[in-house]
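README: folding subset

This subset contains proteins for which both the sequence and a predicted structure token string are available. Records are stored as plain text. Below is the entry for Dihydrodipicolinate synthase family protein (305 residues), shown exactly as it appears on disk.
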Amino acid sequence: MNKRLTGILPVAPTPFLADGRVDEPGMRRVIDCMIDQGVDAICILANYSEQFVLTDAERALMTRVSLEHNAGRKPIIVTISHFSTDIAVQRAKEAEAMGASMLMMMPPYHGALLKATEEGIYQHFEAVSNAVNIPIMVQDAPLSGINLSVPLLVKMAKEIEHVSHFKLECPFAADKLETLIAAGGEHIVGPFDGEEAVTLLADLDAGAIGTMTSGTFPEQIRPIVTHYLAGEKDKALSQWTRCLPLINHENRQCGLRACKTVFMEGGVIKSDFVRHPQHPMSPRTKERLLQLARDLDILALRWGK
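--- output ---
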């Protein structure tokens, strides 16, 4: 990947058939739809891709299917998070060999209490970096239960060759982004936010250059970033305000189920199945989701029709 990424790098859902099997043709349609949404890159196998319910064989299959079908049209970011450093390294090598443009990984954790020390986190990322020749995005999310301090992130950015991108979706992300950028300088190549863009304006004010949302409606969120980076802050605020009801409903009420439900409604995929112990959203939540999506006339609702 030869150029700095900006804009929107959404997470692709992993489609399942109604009987719970992974849906390979559906995955290809997801990639096509997201490219048509005008995304700047696509992230696969992330938490919003339900990576935690996939077998190792399914992970490898969906990585290959996604990268082969994408065929270089957009940069693909492959999430390789795992508590085991050896497994993370193996996943990193496989993803790079298949054509990944970037890797994303969380710090090593398992459950609420099994976590690495700062030294262990540094060594974990260092081992992956030593095994590949593509950029690494650090995902700083509450799910890990780990506080990645700014000094640690800066040290990693300065000393670990391929650690250069950061997705911050922790509480008060804007303050942390601003501090990280100030402390890390040129070593913080790609500061991004997440959480479906619910704090995007504050994060852009703090220096973020893009966002990693779900794939629900990136064509509507991307202009917030492009307007802002072009100095058109009033236009960015106007578009963010327009999108905020759907952003908020997805973030606070639907979670990862939102994209799958919208994609099924629009004919992108056949089923919005989520694997147990997750469960489908309530009819009430689904009705409001689709109403808000229709009000914005989002592409995914008409893509497959």
